[in-house]
Each structure stands twice: as structure tokens, then as C-alpha cells.
Amino acid sequence: MFFEFNSRSKFCHECKIIARKGVDTEHCSFCGFCVEELDHHCPWSSKCIGKKNMIFFKAFLSCLAAAFIFAFVGGALVLGAGMHQAVKSHQKHQHKL
């Protein structure tokens, strides 16, 4: 999509911009924009992940992982406490008989 504009820049036919040569710039077909150091287009945030927002994307992934771990551990603790209570109640009922 790019062609050499001059010795220091290149031109994108899709979005009609001139990008600096030597800077990794790619055109995102989902957004229709050129993005420096494009990693991917995130379908959940509906944004291109590139040079300027990579740190925020990694922070988002870290928070998401922490939330899943918290939910899993919390659910396991609640389930374990409920099972413990059920076993205790069953044992009490067995001793009464």
C-alpha cells in the first residue's frame, strides 16, 4: 500500500498520508488509518494497538487477568465454604440418628 515518495518518506494510497521512511507504519484495514508500529486491531476495544497505546493495552490485559484470577479464587473460596458447611450439616444430621 505504500510507495516511496522521496528518499525520507513514503505515501499510503489508502489514507493519503505521507509517513516517514524508517518508521514501521502499517495501514489498518479495519479502521482505515495508518498506525505506527501496528501490532493488531483489537476487536474488543475496536482500536488499533500500536506504538502509542501498547502500554495501555498491556495494562488492560494485566487488569483483565487479575480480575479473572480474583473471580476464580473468590468463587473457589465461596464454593469451598459452601461445601464445608454442607458436609458439617450432613455430619450433624448423621450423629443425631
Q: Would you mind describing this structure in some detail?
A:
This protein has 97 residues and is of the alpha+beta class. The protein contains 1 helix and 7 strands. Strand 6 and strand 7 (47-49) form a beta hairpin. The protein starts with a strand and ends with a helix.
State the helicity in percent bands: 40-55%
Q: Which strand order spans the largest sheet, edge to edge or round the barrel?
A: 1-2-3
What's the SSE pattern?
Answer: EEEEEEEH
> What does the average pLDDT come to?
82
Gap from first CA to last CA? 81 Å
Overall structural class, as computed from helix and strand content, comes to alpha+beta
Low-pLDDT residue spans: none
Total number of β-strand segments?
Answer: 7
- Proportion of strand residues: 25-35%
Please state the CA-atom Rg, rounded to the nearest Å: 27 Å
Sheet with the most strands, sense and barrel status: 3 strands, antiparallel
Q: Give the overall shape, derived from the CA principal axes.
A: rod-shaped
Q: Number of DSSP helices?
A: 1
Please sum up the structure shown:
This protein has 97 residues and is an alpha+beta fold. Helix content is 44%, strand content 27%.
